[in-house]
Specification:
- The complex is a heterodimer of chains A (about 250) and B (about 350).
- With about 250 residues, chain A is mainly alpha-helical.
- Chain A is about 80% helix and about 0% strand.
- Chain A contains 13 helices and no strands.
- In chain A, helix 4 crosses helix 7.
- The longest helix of chain A is centred in the first third of the chain and has 34 residues.
- Chain B starts with a strand and ends in an 8-residue tail after the last strand.
- In chain B, about 25% of the residues lie in helices and about 35% in strands.
- In chain B, strand 15 and strand 16 form a beta hairpin.
- With about 350 residues, chain B is an alpha+beta fold.
- Chain B has two domains: about 230 residues, P-loop containing nucleotide triphosphate hydrolases (Rossmann fold), CATH 3.40.50.300; about 110 residues, RNA polymerase II/Efflux pump adaptor protein, barrel-sandwich hybrid domain (OB fold (Dihydrolipoamide Acetyltransferase, E2P), Beta Barrel), CATH 2.40.50.
- In chain B, the strands form four sheets. A six-stranded mixed beta sheet of chain B has the order 7-8-9-3-10-11, with helices on both faces.
- The chains are: A mainly alpha (about 250), B alpha+beta (about 350).
- At the A-B interface, helix 8 and helix 9 of A face helix 2, strand 7 and helix 3 of B.
Chain lengths: ~250, ~350
């Protein structure tokens, strides 16, 4: 009974969304300038967020999984904090650190003329900040499950640290790397609070899909619904892909 | 001497202190009960762990010398390890596994694959090169692990229980093959095992470790005929009796007396083979002078042979056939007479630890 209520609670809003879709204008709604700008920007930003998360998150995950240093659990807590932190707080924090008057933002601007707020780079930063923990957690768990014996075997065969990591560790955790990237990407794609707080809402520059949906709801409901449909479709695609990937990884 | 090791390691309450020399082409088996420090020894020699004090040299070059701040990392030490579970890389084919060593040491992709194919051919695995490791049988995986180790052109070969993961049927054939393949390696080899049959089949020399110390070493024959600890005696399947002699009579520490054909003075070890212990239902009388009345403490069946652990005064094992057991109708607790001929008791000094430096 309770389960039925739960299922209804999840499905009814989706049905509501579907019932309001104006199918005749769906295509023109999706190809309107606002929508195309938002779609393109969201793709670019979320891809960047995944790339940056891989670049910085994998080494962090390796250190958390493979080394022992004082304060490691503190570092792990910090690395996962953005998962539980309200995104808008993350946005405020980014603003205070990297904004024009921020601790780092001020010297960055006065010395190099670099401004992050209200730029696409800022949107990427906000998405990375919020989404990276998903990658770190997934990859760290995968690294922990790989027995160090394989890395030890590689080293006794003459492979240095980098060769061992590239040829033994990475391929072993590849499924988790893909899964972690997909989760990170999905989270980055849906990021709202931190992005609007830190990067603002400028069409074509920082107005990602969720922001465009929120703004369009105010007068251009068709477009909002069409964009929501696009996000829903992407979410379902990620879910299906991950599911089949995980099943594929289990059944060789 | 090609490997010379004085390994001293302290890990919490455990201390390992082992001195070991292995010549080129020589195969030394390290035997010891679980927790004796065998695996730690292998890991320090490979450079996976460092020693606290002592000195490890390979071909007269120091690879771990804490006093002089020298520690050569595993990838530069050229000590290949065959791990107990083989640790084959499951995302690579068999040939890629074997090519991993040469490739890591700087050979080109093509050259490493060529060498890997050569090794696989030597090991009779030429047809299996494209397989994934999980498709191999236990014996094949063991050979691939050894081929991979040798293909990296090590100066020292270490094997940690290389036969433990095999089932009984595969074990004996792999054992004799291992001996053959090891003879083609001209550097020093060390094989860690807890099975004396593995050691007997593969190794030239045995080193026995207990509680982090070498308790005995020598050829298989030397160790079998002169065990110095209960573990070694049990490993070799013989009874070890400690006692004191003043002439030809041995008085055991438990107070039993035995007539021997040796004339000694002082603390001694005596070895009695279980099959030399004769059992009777009544006092045998007559010629054997070492006869005593006792009880059967435990019965342990080993196929068609049966091992009976005897109770006081002399707690040794006797081995009889299954048929004899039925004939005597012996059960645990049965009274029985035991006897040993004086000529079948081998005695040697307990004071001089021959074979141990």
């Amino acid at each position: 009974m309770i389960a039925a209520i739960t299922v209804a609670f999840i499905t009814i809003p989706l049905v509501g969304l579907l019932s309001k879709v104006s199918w005749s204008t769906l295509w023109s709604d999706l190809t309107s300038t606002v929508a195309v700008d938002a779609l393109g920007l969201s793709l670019v930003c979320s891809m960047w967020a995944v790339a940056l998360s891989l670049l910085f998150g994998v080494p962090l995950a390796w250190i958390l999984a493979r080394t022992d240093f004082p304060g490691r659990s503190l570092v792990r807590a910090l690395a996962t904090l953005p998962m539980v932190l309200p995104p808008v707080v993350g946005g405020v924090a980014l603003l205070l650190a990297f904004g024009r008057d921020g601790v780092l933002g001020r010297p960055l601007f006065s010395l190099f003329g670099v401004q992050l707020t209200f730029t696409t780079a800022g949107a990427v930063m906000a998405e990375t900040f919020v989404a990276m923990p998903f990658l770190v957690i997934t990859v760290e768990a995968a690294l922990r499950s790989v027995h160090p014996r394989f890395e030890e075997a590689a080293s006794t065969l003459g492979a240095g640290r980098w060769t061992t990591f590239r040829r033994v560790t990475l391929p072993t955790i590849a499924p988790s790397l893909v899964a972690g990237s997909a989760l990170t990407w999905a989270r980055a794609l849906g990021e709202f609070g931190a992005t609007i707080t830190f990067a603002g809402d400028i069409q074509g520059r920082t107005q990602t899909l969720p922001l465009a949906v929120y703004v369009a709801l105010e007068g251009n409901e068709h477009v909002a619904i069409a964009l929501s449909m696009a996000l829903l479709a992407i979410s379902i695609a990620v879910l299906v892909a991950l599911r089949s990937w995980w099943l594929g990884a289990i059944r060789p | 001497m090609s490997l010379s090791a004085d390994v001293r390691v302290t890990r919490r309450a455990f201390e390992l202190s082992v001195q070991l020399e292995v010549a080129d082409g020589e195969v030394v088996a390290i035997l010891g009960p679980n927790g004796s420090g065998k695996t730690t020894l292998v890991r320090t020699l490979a450079g996976l762990e460092s020693i606290n004090s002592g000195l490890v040299t390979i071909d007269d070059v120091a690879v771990d010398d804490p006093a002089n701040g020298i520690f050569v990392v595993p990838e530069r030490r050229r000590c290949a390890v065959v791990f107990q579970d083989y640790a084959l890389f499951s995302h690579m084919s068999v040939v890629e596994n074997v090519a991993f060593g040469p490739r890591s040491r700087g050979a080109t992709r093509l050259e490493s694959r060529r060498r890997a194919h050569e090794w696989l051919e030597t090991f009779g695995l030429a047809a299996r090169g494209a397989e994934r490791p999980e498709r191999l049988s236990g014996g094949e995986a063991q050979r691939v692990a050894l081929a991979r180790a040798l293909a990296s052109e090590p100066r020292l070969l270490l094997m940690d229980e290389p036969l433990a993961a095999l089932d009984v049927s595969a074990r004996s054939s792999v054992r004799s093959e291992l001996r053959r393949h090891l003879s083609s390696f001209d550097g020093p080899s060390i094989i860690v095992t807890h099975d004396p049959l593995d050691a007997a089949a593969v190794a030239d020399r045995l080193v026995i470790i207990e509680n982090g110390l070498v308790v005995q070493h020598g050829t298989l024959r030397e160790v079998t005929s002169r065990p110095r600890t209960d573990y070694v005696a049990e490993l070799m399947g013989v009874n070890l009796v400690r006692g004191h002699m003043d002439g030809t009579i041995l008085v055991t520490h438990d107070g039993a007396t035995l007539q021997t054909t040796h004339d000694r003075h002082g603390e001694v070890f005596a070895v009695i083979a279980p099959r030399d212990v004769a059992l009777y239902s009544n006092s045998p009388g007559g010629s054997p002078r070492n006869a005593w009345s006792t009880r059967v403490a435990h019965i342990h069946r080993l196929g068609e042979r049966v091992r009976l652990q005897l109770d006081a005064p002399l707690r040794i094992a006797a081995e009889i056939t299954e048929a004899a057991l039925d004939q005597f109708a012996l059960v645990e607790g049965s009274p029985v007479w035991a006897s040993v001929k004086a000529t079948q008791i081998d005695v040697y000094d307990a004071g001089v630890r021959d074979g141990v430096e």
